[in-house]
Amino acid sequence: MRPSLRAFALVPIAALAIAAPAASANGDRPSPGAPSAGDPLFPGLGNGGYDVQHYTLDLVYGSTASVQTVPALATIEAQATQSLSRFDLDFNGDSVGFVTVDGRPAAFSRQGEELVVTPRNAIRDHRRFTVRVGYTSGPRAIAPEDQGDLNKVLAIAWFSTPSGSITAAQPNAAHRIFPSNDVPSDPASYTFHAITPAGSTFVANGELTGKATIAGHTFWSYEERDPMASELIQLAFGALTVKDRGSDRGVRLRDVAPTNQIAELEPALATEVSHLDYMTDKVGRYPFRTYGTFSSDATFPFALEDQTISLYPSFIFLPGPAPLGDPRFYQPIMVHELAHQWFGDSVTPARWSDVWLNEGHATWYEWEWAQEVGDPVFYLGVPTVEERMRQTYAQGDQWRAQWGPVAAPSHGADDVAQMFSPNIYDGGALVLFALRQVIGDPAFRQLERRWVQRYGGGPASTADFIALANAVSHRDLTGFLTAWLYGTKTPPMPGHPDWTVDPVGAPAALAAPRQAGAALLRR
Fold it and tell me: Which of 196, 215, 359, 515 has the smallest set of CB atoms within 10 Å of its CB?
């Protein structure tokens, strides 16, 4: 199937005739949509007044260069949640050439990282409308001295690699890549079209639905039919090989790696089949149609759970200084990212303060896998998850003082690296351990499955989790979980009156070297 080429006749803004917005015909006075979704950690992100239903991105890679300007068209299908005189999109890309609303030219301005759109006619409440934005953005280079700086890497979001380019938008940088409502509480389905030089490969979230090479150019189409948060987007381009691994548990598996590394990486990539079996046995049916591992030859300090395809730096799989290249090291990290497909991708956080629901759950299954299948002493530094939880418990008050309570992190836009602190990962898993101590393992496993069944495909909050825990356990756990999630002090651990919390300011206990290294990579 040949993708649409409509994106690539970008209309100069000077040629557009812009009219003032008309009054609403239904008597409802139109007003501007809010320029923010009101997330305390990222107050500039998101917008009010509409709900996005679908994005279509049409992209043109004009050369094989890793750093280049990519002309693009974003088609955004949305439904108004109020009568709109104007509305905002989040966008921090390079340029905007034109904007239309329902096929008619619209006025626009750029105010910081906002694209403010004034349609020719007001948009009535509940009405579906279509916005098209002709824009440019593209991959940038990361300075070698910045490759280990999480804040600087994530601020770029779309960056060059030795083999091409990739995206990494979590948590707040998708709008560097494309105009969007850049909050996880507004997931939407996606269509991706790209034109690349023949011989190059383009990969995006979801399923490949079309590929054709004509006159030296290849036309690609991908569909992600399930709702996806903007921060989970992946646009990969360059000298890449896609490995079709067939199907497992009804899931189509495909892996992506630089062509010159694919053979050496194959033993690591192939392990994902056993990970998928493990996670589906634990929490039920995988929530999407496809999955895969994307190993990039770029140097960056994290792994990332892009929807349907998890991103890793190749160096963790290849021989190097211990523990790099050791399956006992990288397989628990792969399980962590796979677990995010349920916890964080299918069920997205309602606000970024709910991110412990992503990371606490992914850490839980990472540690369980290390104990049940892997090598817990090698990976965790102790023989059991329970002993690892005891070490985590001892750090509880220090972490809360440094980074805030588990469900109320004190950092966000000012320091993303600090927002993704050990208290979100290990501390989040510790909350789940405390909950299981109270309700028992059978009820806990039922809660895990019910959570992804009830809220899959949309956002859910900490309050939703507490309510479901109450329902599944048939008891009121509101006070108990509130103390664990929002308290400034670590509550007593049920069933373990001998567990103690180190005083704030005491020297931190040394984590296992492998676990400490993994903590730098997990996202």
Answer: 215
156 neighbors 176 (Cβ within 8 angstroms): yes
Measure the CA angle with vertex 521, ends 286 and 329; round to 5°. Answer: 80
pLDDT band for 86, please (50, 70, 90 cuts). very high
CATH code of the region 347-521 = 1.10.390.10
Give the Cβ contact number of residue 267 at 10 Å: 11
Where do the CATH 1.10.390.10 domains begin and end in the chain?
A: 347-521
Interval 141-198: pLDDT, tens: 999 988 888 888 888 999 999 999 999 999 999 999 999 999 999 999 999 999 999 9
CA angle 86, 89, 93 (to 5 degrees): 135
Q: Which amino acid is at 514?
A: R
**Backbone dihedral angles phi then psi of residue 4, each to the nearest 5 degrees:** -65, 145
pLDDT category at 414 given cuts 50, 70, 90 is confident
Closest by Cα among 451, 395, 453, 455 to 425 = 395
Distances (CA, A) of 272 to 99, 341, 353: 42, 13, 30
Q: Residue 504: which region, alpha, beta or left (left: phi > 0; alpha: psi -120 to 50)?
A: beta
Q: What is the pLDDT at residue 523? A: 67
Phi-psi region of 328 (alpha: psi -120 to 50; beta: other; left: phi over 0): alpha
* Residue ranges, CATH 2.60.40.1730, the chain: 1-238
Contact 174, 233 (CB under 8 A): yes
Cross-strand partners of 31:
84
pLDDT number for residue 6? 32
Category of 138 on φ-ψ map: left (φ > 0), alpha (ψ -120 to 50) or beta: left
User: Is residue 428 pLDDT above 50, yes or no?
Assistant: yes
CATH code matching the domain that covers 1-238, chosen among 3.30.870.10, 2.60.40.1730, 1.10.150.670, 3.30.565.10: 2.60.40.1730
| Confidence (pLDDT) at 508 | 66
Q: Could you tell me the end-to-end alpha-carbon distance of the chain, in angstroms, rounded to an integer?
A: 35
Sign of CA dihedral 86, 89, 95, 98: negative
Q: Which residues of 216-235 are buried (b: 16+ CB within 10 A; e: fewer)?
A: eebbbbbbbebbbbbbbbbb
**Strand 458-460 with 235-238, pairing:** unpaired
Q: Rounding to the nearest 10 degrees, give the CA dihedral for residues 20, 25, 27, 33.
A: -50
